[in-house]
Amino acid sequence: MQFGTDLPTEADLRVCGGLKGRRVLDIGCGAGENAVAMARQGAHVIAIDVSSAQLALGRRLAEAAEVRVEWHEGDAADLAFLRADSIDLALATGVVHEIEDLDRLFRQVHRVLRAGAAFVFSHDHPMRLAVGREDHEPGGLPLGFLEVRRSYFDQSPIVTTRHDEPLQVWPRTIADVFSALHRAGYRVDVLLEPEMLRSSDPGPATPTAVLWRARKEGV
Fold this sequence. Notes:
With 219 residues, the protein is of the alpha/beta class. It is built from six helices and eleven strands.
């Protein structure tokens, strides 16, 4: 499973644990790569994404891999179709920073997780959204000086790009995310800032992603 482009995989980080026989929720599943990978490991996967086009790609991928995935079209925090305390693991890669109401997402995921079950998610590191190269054009080599282009603490939304398409994201500090998890009733037991395995940026290196594992507290 992948947590982001050119980042260490689940095989390297081992934050999800064994998947065979577990009910797994893949939030913001995109084209279904992680959903299909988990289904091939024996998980019962429920995947949700707002894009019907991405879900169509996921269905084709699952068909080619000859695995079953339960697909749902909808908002990442719209989990009313799931019973409370019915999910063994929730996964969200690269989608949390796209959601304006983070508290609602965390509450909804908390509701469907079993007690002690983990929510594993990754998102753009706030430093990645605060720094950049001078005169760096999309598609060009990042050769200019590295500079801070906006305050690390600025929470106003910004527009970045993904797959050459504009994407609005809401920057949050690590402390902001930690506090939101605490409010929703989670206990954080893993917090990683994985170093990229490959990069076209000549350095100095800055973190590009944050990876969390937070467990639902309670019985």
